[in-house]
Every structure is written in structure tokens, then in C-alpha cells.
């Protein structure tokens, strides 16, 4: 079910599916380290006031489903998740820097898509019907 949030002067539902990979697709996010990354992401989300609805840490990439406000800027969210988690992981696991040439944990690119409980077709049909609906309302008002 779509979760709608009411702000001051606006109503919104903003959800993103985000995927990003470990540099060189090295399989370093395993066992306790994978659990630690989940803990880190959860802490970052709490601190930055967005919600991680679902998360999975794979050995060489992560999937996140986040819910955020219109004030959140998606590139900043991703930068904070990647930068903070990399810094913390390297501090806790200095041997990772040898495995990951140059000391970069995450690949600089990412995948993101918005999600909703309504399909693109439904939204397109709704938008395309607005002129027709507006004309009916306008003519009824005369």
C-alpha cells in the first residue's frame, strides 16, 4: 500500500530502489562485514532522517529501497551512504585497502529507479485524461 506523508503545504510519497557495487566487483561484503554494512546504512539513515524500507547486502553490491522527503537530494544520500560506510569499513578492516586498489570501496556509479504502487500506464492514462476531464468541469461550470 502506498504510504503518503503530509508535509507543510505538500503531500508526497518518494521511494527509490538504489543499487551500487563494490569497486572492481570484488566480493568483500561477506559474513560479519555484510551485517556491519547493514548496521552502518541503518545508522546513516537514522542520522539523515530517511528510511530504509528494505536492504540486502550481496558480496559485491547492495540493494536499498528508501523512503525520503522532498528535501532529500538523492545524489547526497548516495554520497553519504557510500562515503561514510567506506570510511568506517576501512577503519575497521584496513586490509581491505590492499584488496581494493587505490583504497576505494564503492564503484562511483549507481543505479536508481523511482517506485510506486501504480504503474506507468495508469499514470500516463490519468495525465492524458486531464484535458478531457478539465473540459467537462469547465463546461459544467458555465
What does this structure look like?
This protein has helices spanning 31-48, 74-92, 96-99, 120-140, and strands at 5-7, 10-12, 14-21, 51-57, 61-68, 111-114. Helix 1 (31-48) crosses helix 2. It is 44% helix and 23% strand. The strands form 2 sheets. Strands 4-5-3-6 form a 4-stranded antiparallel sheet, with helices on one face. Strands 1-2 form a two-stranded antiparallel ribbon. A hairpin with a 2-residue loop joins strand 1 (5-7) and strand 2 (10-12). The chain is of the alpha+beta class and 142 residues long. It has one domain (5-140): 2-Layer Sandwich (Alpha-Beta Plaits), CATH 3.30.70.1290. It is built from 4 helices and 6 strands, in the order E-E-E-H-E-E-H-H-E-H.
What's this entry about, in short?
This protein has 142 residues and is α+β, with helices and mostly antiparallel strands. It has a single domain (5-140), classed as Transposase IS200-like (Alpha-Beta Plaits, 2-Layer Sandwich). The protein is built from four helices and six strands.
CATH class: Alpha Beta
Q: Helical proportion? A: 40-55%
SSE succession: EEEHEEHHEH
Number of helices: 4
Annotation, overall tally of beta strands: 6
Unreliably modeled segments: none
Main pleated sheet: 4 strands, antiparallel
The separation of the N and C termini measures 39 Å
Bulk shape: elongated
CATH fold topology? Alpha-Beta Plaits
The name of the CATH superfamily reads Transposase IS200-like
Number of domains: 1
Round the mean pLDDT to the nearest integer and report it.
Answer: 90
Enumerate the strands of the largest sheet in spatial order, edge to edge or round the barrel. Answer: 4-5-3-6
Radius of gyration: 20 Å
The class by helix and strand makeup works out as alpha+beta
- CATH-derived architecture: 2-Layer Sandwich
Strand content: 15-25%
